[in-house]
Write a structure and sequence with these properties.
By secondary structure, the protein is α+β, with helices and mostly antiparallel strands. It is built from 11 helices and 8 strands. It has a domain of 187 residues: 3-Layer(aba) Sandwich (Beta-lactamase), CATH 3.40.710.10.
Length: 377
């Protein structure tokens, strides 16, 4: 860690203690680049609740939705290579997707969470979660929950499949290999959507209780359309959000790109470092980064029922949920507080990952880290 950034290390240590309504970190790591230099690379705590194994430099952890931008960048790279077009119907490269009124849904709709597909309607078997083709077939058989392009709603567990299947088709590859070939290997970062079996020993168990799927209501308590959509979004298949399966080998080695990407904090920060303008070999042409980080959707989200701002695959800052330090920042939170972002105005690339989630919307650990970062820069 470079001199002058000690407050961030202090904040990481403080985050090991519980807050009101937040358990604090069990184990966590943070990495920050500032104007091209890795100035912070700090790890705290343990990977196990017994506190016998310390978090290591190469510890991988499930990064949840902080990895949605990885799927977005793969799609945008295909746009840059002339294989896809933002305003081209997805069905042009995925004909089955046109079913049930989806023939006009474009890649831009999907990247901006405007496709109307936050859930899969046909009930899927638990095993389907680990079968890429089964998940994509379920999406193809789903009618939109709202008119595509009319509104936006967080595609919690479907985003990676809606955006990823066109990439797989035009690249003639799997999603796991696309991540390695187009992002991880070129950048030299430790990031996976589908962890190789040989690397499973480095994965920190995620600390979650067992969850029970929602029960079917009595006839007099018929769920609202929104409640039905939420139930399908989070529980179809039952492990779609990683609940009860996040620490299994099957989950870790599969490709569930909205939810099961694994990375180190250095890798997450390195991914965003490659999206800043001063990088010699960026992941994307500058004009596509600018397009992806321009607001495409804002206002009340059809799924979350609260305001949120989306670019193309990235969330953008808002007063009740800061992403970086300035309005130029773009990135993505993950379940329970993990966060990755780039802040071009400050020249910052940031990655923070934890294996014990806390408050989902305004995580006090993240607030403390962002406050310490602001004091440093």
């Amino acid at each position: 860690m470079e001199p002058g950034y000690e407050p961030i290390a202090d904040a990481m240590v403080a985050n090991q203690s519980p807050f009101e309504n937040d358990p604090g970190d069990l184990g966590a790591a943070i990495a920050i680049h500032h104007h091209g230099r890795l100035v912070v690379d700090v790890r705290c705590g343990h990977i196990d609740p017994e506190r016998t194994v310390r978090w290591q430099a190469d510890t991988l952890v499930n990064a949840y939705s902080t990895m949605k931008p990885v799927a977005a960048v793969l799609a945008l790279q295909a746009v840059a290579d002339g294989l896809l077009d933002l305003d081209q119907p997805i069905a042009d490269v995925w004909p089955e997707f046109a079913e049930h009124g989806k023939d006009g849904i474009t890649l831009r709709h999907a990247l901006a969470h405007q496709a109307g597909l936050p859930a899969i309607r046909p009930l899927l078997a638990d095993d389907d979660l680990y079968d890429w083709d089964a998940m994509c077939s379920g999406l193809a058989a789903t009618s939109p929950f709202w008119e595509p392009g009319r509104a936006h709603g967080y595609h919690t567990n479907t985003f990676g499949f809606v955006v990823g299947e066109p990439v797989c088709r035009v690249r003639n590859t799997t999603f796991t290999e696309a991540v390695q070939h187009h992002i991880a290997r070129p950048l030299g970062i430790d990031l996976h959507v589908g962890v190789p079996h040989a690397e499973l020993g480095r994965v920190a168990p995620f600390q979650l209780p067992q969850y029970s799927p929602p029960t079917d209501p009595q006839p007099a308590e018929a769920p609202s359309e929104h409640d039905q959509m939420l139930s399908l979004a989070y529980w179809n298949p039952s492990g779609a959000s990683g609940m009860n399966v996040v620490n299994t080998t099957r989950w870790r080695t599969a490709a569930v790109p909205s939810t099961n990407g694994h990375a180190t904090a250095q890798a997450l920060a390195g991914f965003y470092r490659a999206l800043l303008a001063d990088v010699p070999s960026p992941l994307l042409p500058r004009e596509l980064v600018d397009e992806a980080t321009t607001e495409h959707a804002s206002g009340i989200d059809e799924v979350l029922l609260r305001p949120i701002r989306f670019g193309l695959g990235f969330t953008l800052p808002q007063p009740d949920r800061p992403i970086g330090l300035t309005s130029s920042a773009f990135g993505h939170y993950g379940f329970g507080g993990s966060l990755g972002f780039a802040d071009p105005a400050e020249g910052i690339a940031f990655g923070y990952l934890t294996n014990r989630p806390g408050e989902r919307w305004q995580n006090p650990r993240v607030k403390r880290l962002l406050g310490a970062l602001a004091d440093c820069v």
